[in-house]
Amino acid sequence: MADRIREAISVLRTEADDALVVPEAELRKSEEKLWEYKQLLEGQEASTTTNEGLIRKIRLLEEDLDAAGRQLIETVDRLRAAEMECSHWEASYKDLLQQMQGP
Predict the structure, then answer these.
(1) What element of type H or E holds 31?
(2) What is the rounded CA–CA span in Å between residue 57 and residue 39?
(3) Which of 12, 48, 76, 98 is 20 to 30 A from 3, comparing alpha carbons?
(4) Can you tell me the distance from the alpha carbon of 7 to that of 41, in angstroms, rounded to the nearest whole number?
């Protein structure tokens, strides 16, 4: 039974780690794109139309970055909650085993 709980904890941690990979990768990609667009804006003297287009792209990238950050925070919070729940169940299991074994 303890092995099953440990296995469940391991599965939850693996799933949580896997869930973090995507938002972190999206966050890095968005930051890189944001940096590239900002460099384009600083390095060129572009027409008003081009500037407006780049500014729109930067705003969209910043929104994507914010969304990825929120998703990362939510995932970390869910991971913490799952770990706490698993710890609670593991402690309950140990207590039950001790009660069953007697003094």
Answers:
(1) helix 2-43
(2) 13
(3) 76
(4) 51
